[in-house]
Prior knowledge:
Layout: H1 13-23, E1 30-35, E2 41-46, E3 49-54, E4 57-64, H2 73-80, E5 83-88, H3 94-100, H4 110-114, E6 118-119, E7 128-129, E8 134-147, E9 150-162, E10 182-184, E11 190-192, H5 204-211
Antiparallel strand pairs: 1-2, 1-5, 3-4, 4-9, 5-8, 6-7, 8-9, 10-11
The structure holds flavin mononucleotide (FMN).
Amino acid sequence: MSSDVYVFSELKPIERYKLLCGIVVPRPIALVTSLDEAGRVNAAPFSFFNVFSEEPAQIVLGLQHKAPGQPKDTTRNLARAKSFVVNMVDEPLAETMNLCATDFPPDVSEIEALGIETAPSNLVEPPRIAAAPFALECRKSMSLAFNETRELLIGEVLAIHARPDLTDAKTFYTDAQRYRPIGRLAGNAYCRQGEVFEMRRLSYEQWRKDTGR
Ligand SMILES: Cc1cc2nc3c(=O)[nH]c(=O)nc-3n(C[C@H](O)[C@H](O)[C@H](O)COP(=O)(O)O)c2cc1C
């Protein structure tokens, strides 16, 4: 099959961004709540976000500065504070999440400006968003600055608030049909969860039996 090759060393950052954001999809969205030095609650969405382990339970956030030396409010807050909350975004929370990406000045709390209802966290200071289907209380583990405009933040999940109809407290399984997460595609495009399907993972032995090899 033929292919076009995009060599990253020959591309402008914006071209790499467009390629990566259009191709590595859908990305989950972390609506992060954090506290500024005056105790105001900041909320902002991040789709350079994922989980990468359970022991310790770690999540990552890709934080881009507005300009060299000008970090976003979340980045500034997390440079000082030790904790934050990742509120997961489902269909009902989508519009609110998008409004939180408005470039409010640093002294304006998205939570106050948009009238978003919060609820206290158990183990960390920043509150969670009451309507979020899940909220991950996190402690900052470390932050890696790759250059003047890009930081990778790693956080440890200390606790999860889960809507009781979504996660079974006995089995720890989450109902994939009921949970309606939205995913970020490129630019202003998002997706809803489509049809859920299952595939059984085979052992080598089973594969050999099935294929006769
Ligand atoms: C769906 C979505 C995903 C986003 N993902 C990121 C991201 O991964 N990294 C980033 O730096 N900004 C991301 N942004 C932009 C920030 O949310 C935006 O700059 C926001 O205003 C930052 O707010 P703050 O200054 O209060 O932290 C995203 C925006 C949207 C709408």
